[in-house]
Amino acid sequence: MHINEVRARAKALGLNGVGKMRRADIILQIQQAENNTPCFGSEQRKDCPYETCCWRGDCLQI
């Protein structure tokens, strides 16, 4: 997902102050706001159990 799409999703969730944040940090904020495990880019990605996560493809490429 492109950074502008990530920012738009964050804005739709009411998250403020994401304009200058790194993409990965915004995604972590989105995951928390959606009551999901904030794990994007973490070591957990090696054995990721969240097959339906919309960030999974991007996360596994890191």
Give a brief description.
The protein is mainly alpha-helical and 62 residues long. The protein has one domain (3-60). It has helices at 3-12, 23-33, 56-60.
Secondary-structure map:
Elements: H1 3-12, H2 23-33, H3 56-60
Helix pairs in contact: 1-2
Describe it.
- This protein is mostly helical and 62 residues long.
- The chain has one domain.
- The protein is built from three helices and no strands.
- α1 runs parallel beside α2 (23-33).
- The protein is globular and about 30 Å long.
Number of domains: 1
Q: How many strand segments?
A: 0
Residue share in helix: 40-55%
Coarse structural class: mainly alpha
Straight-line N-to-C gap: 13 Å
Taking all residues together, what is the mean pLDDT?
95
Task: Tell me the overall shape.
Answer: globular
Low-pLDDT runs of 5+ residues are none
Question: How much is the radius of gyration in Å?
Answer: 11 Å
Largest sheet: none
Strand content: under 5%
Secondary-structure element pattern, one letter each: HHH
Report the total helices: 3
